[in-house]
Specification:
Radius of gyration: 24 Å
Structural class: alpha+beta
Shape: elongated
Strand content: 35-45%
Low-confidence stretches: none
Length: 161
């Protein structure tokens, strides 16, 4: 079975899909297709019980659009000291942006897979950010449920011994 057939099979049978990562609850597998062709294997299939943990990475920042000092100087040139005060008071709009948003899946064999949601500057008020944030929440809920099931299974095994 070739790569295309595997991907098609996992896409059809997956309960959740994001950034080339397919979760199949029936088979309890995670199929990962790598976009980077230099990655060994270019694809990977892991069982749910091989998921060790995950980590969320969000690089956000605030940007000042215009500085109050610049507006104060401009205001003073136009209207003297009163203009400087008004210019300084009205200066600076800030906007919050996210430059990177990803979730890193870590497996028991030491391997990991990054699920990239945002790569590049995106305003937090934008529809794109809201959509990708929602996808991250869904992914983390999925990962939490997998890890919780593992923990419950481990607890049951301990109590049976």
């Amino acid at each position: 079975m070739g790569l295309f057939n595997k991907q098609t099979e996992h896409a059809k049978n997956s309960n959740f899909k994001i950034d080339g990562v397919y979760f199949n609850d029936n088979a309890e597998t995670i199929y990962m297709k790598y976009k980077n062709l230099t990655k060994n294997g270019r694809e990977s299939l892991k069982k749910y019980n091989e998921l060790a943990s995950y980590r969320e990475v969000v690089d956000d920042m605030q940007e000042n659009k215009k500085h109050g000092i610049t507006r104060a100087v401009t205001g003073s040139l136009i209207a003297g000291p009163t203009g400087a005060i008004v210019g300084a008071a009205t200066g600076g709009k800030t906007k919050k942006t996210v430059e990177k948003m990803k979730v890193i899946l870590m497996f028991t064999d030491g391997s990991s897979r990054e699920v990239n949601l945002i790569m590049g500057k995106v305003e937090m008020k934008s529809a794109l950010y809201q959509q990708r944030f929602q996808k991250m929440v869904e992914l983390e809920a999925k990962l939490d449920s997998i890890l919780a099931a593992q923990e419950q299974e481990t607890s049951e095994q301990r109590s049976n011994t």
